[in-house]
Design a protein that fits this description.
Layout (H helix, E strand, L loop, with lengths): L5 H18 L6 H18 L4 H18 L6 H36 L14 H16 L8 H9 L1 H4 L7 H4 L12 H32 L20 H32 L17 H5 L4 H12 L9 H19 L3 H24 L6 H23 L3 H11 L14 H16 L3 H4 L28 H17 L12
């Protein structure tokens, strides 16, 4: 039941909203919390009922460990021991469900063993709620959190708008919104929430799902077979086709993840909860450091605060710093999936970050004019496009085939035999959109749609004046977008980040 499905839009969400509206009118302020927890568990169980068991066990264990860690007077030695138990439990559960198969396959291949690991279905959202709770335990050990009620904690972990694909919410952002207050269902939250959701739905259904068709024509898979308008196995992928396919995927994952992030934030706001910003026009980044401050922001913050800094960060010399960057990004890549292509993708970004930091160490930070800005954004964008090939490829062989074609070794045609002129124009127009137009959070910044500070505008002067307002014009625009989305939804699929 993805957000962009009839079952969610026409059945699940209306029932949840109606029940929530009734619950907020009842005497106990806890009833809306209980209602949202039950609905979130139903949402998770809809995917696979068996996924509820690891989620429930994870919540019970982490809540219990957290309660012990926040007790006054507990010796540091015992705190470290109890935290270690919690950390081993979380990493052990994630490792068993997600990485046991990859590990055994690798060992078997390298050493000729025949280890057999039972097939395990990856529980939905385990990567997200595991990292979320590791951060909670880490801060509880360091005295940065307080004792929480079990209902508050359950909603913090299970809240369905962010459960499946993030953001990786931090307790300091969400739990204070629950302290001693009622969740509200009011017209302001409704207007902001619906607008965010419709903007995100439009990105997913009208743009990302359309681009998915173009991506499939260049990468292996439907409709990539010869005779279906794509590249067959016996047909060499050429320069133009490879680059158009790679850029199409770069745009697909942008609008897919950006759309999900807007929808999650909008759903949270419908229930009076502000979720943190997770996506901020990353293709306008001027370097890779800036890119990771804009792409999957909550994952970047987690990796920085709970991996890079504990490893030593930049405090132990340049060599150690660069080693920490590589290690952090390798593990960040592995977090996305149990495949060596994800590890290499993370390693590539770790290498990019090393180069970026080394460049700054030699040349320092400099003010750049318009030419410099365009050049830096162009170089960063090309680097990101190349890395996305690893992220999209099914295996190392496909990644190598694609990168070989992008280097021009298979010929320099323009991809005309796969992409029609209008499809090429669509790709060019969408590039203009991501580089030039303000994002949804900037358009709505007056109303602070996300948790945290208001976003500024970093684009062309004048375009930043695009503003959303709760008025008739936007109601008509969004109503029309929603109707068009309903017509197109049946051809779409799940969000890319639902796989992780």
């Amino acid at each position: 039941m993805v957000f962009s499905s009839y079952s969610f839009l026409l059945l699940f969400l209306p029932i949840v909203l109606a029940g929530f509206a009734i619950a907020t009118k009842l005497p106990s302020r806890r009833i809306p919390f209980v209602w949202l927890i039950l609905c979130s568990l139903i949402y998770c169980g809809y995917w696979r009922l068996n996924d509820l068991l690891p989620l429930a066990v994870s919540i019970l264990v982490n809540f219990s460990v957290g309660r012990v860690l926040v007790k006054d007077g507990l010796a540091d030695t015992y705190k470290r021991l109890i935290f270690s138990v919690g950390l081993i439990f979380n990493l052990g559960m994630l490792g068993w469900f997600k990485y046991a198969g990859m590990f055994s396959d690798t060992v078997n291949t390298l050493f000729g063993f025949s280890w057999h690991v039972p097939a395990v279905v990856l529980p939905i959202a385990i990567s997200f709620y595991t990292f979320q709770q590791i951060a909670y335990l880490f801060d509880a050990k360091n005295g940065l959190t307080r004792e929480h009620q079990f209902i508050d904690y359950c909603l913090f972990v299970t809240f369905f708008p962010q459960l499946i694909a993030g953001p990786i919410v931090h307790h300091r952002d969400i739990l204070p919104q629950f302290y001693g207050r009622r969740l509200s269902f009011d017209s302001s939250n409704l207007a902001i929430g619906v607008s965010l959701f419709v903007f995100g739905l439009s990105k997913k259904v009208l743009i990302a799902d359309e681009l998915a068709i173009l991506v499939g024509r260049a990468f292996t898979g439907s409709p990539g077979a010869a005779g279906a308008g794509g590249v067959g196995e016996a047909e060499l992928l050429t320069f133009g086709t490879a680059w158009l396919g790679a850029v199409a995927y770069t745009l697909q994952i942008y609008f897919d993840f950006s759309g999900y992030s807007d929808m999650a934030m909008g759903l949270g706001r419908l229930f009076g909860v502000k979720l943190p910003l997770n996506f901020n026009s990353p293709y306008r980044a001027t370097n890779i450091i800036d890119f990771w401050r804009r792409w999957h922001i909550t994952l970047s913050v987690f990796l920085r605060d709970y991996l890079y800094i504990p490893l030593g960060g930049n405090r132990k010399g340049k060599v150690r710093r660069y080693g920490n960057l590589i290690m952090t990004m390798l593990l960040g890549g592995m977090w996305h999936g149990a495949s060596w292509v994800f590890v290499l993708w993370g390693g590539m970004h770790g290498f990019y970050l090393m180069v970026n930091h080394a460049w700054r160490a030699v040349f320092g930070k400099r003010d750049m004019g318009l030419t410099g800005l365009i050049t830096c954004r162009g170089i960063t964008f090309v680097a990101v496009v190349i890395a996305w090939v690893l992220f999209r490829a099914a295996d190392l062989g496909e990644a190598g085939r694609f990168l070989t074609a992008m280097s021009g070794m298979n010929g320099l045609d323009g991809g005309e035999h796969i992409y029609k002129p209008l499809q090429v124009i669509l790709i060019v127009v969408l590039l203009g959109v991501v580089f030039v137009l303000p994002n949804v959070q900037v358009m709505m910044r007056k109303y602070r749609p996300q948790f945290g500070k208001r976003l500024g505008w970093d684009g062309i002067r004048g375009l930043g004046t695009w503003r959303w307002r709760p008025e008739m014009f936007w109601m008509v625009v969004q109503g029309a977008l929603f109707v068009v989305c309903l017509v197109q939804i049946s051809r779409g699929g799940e969000f890319i980040y639902y796989r992780f």
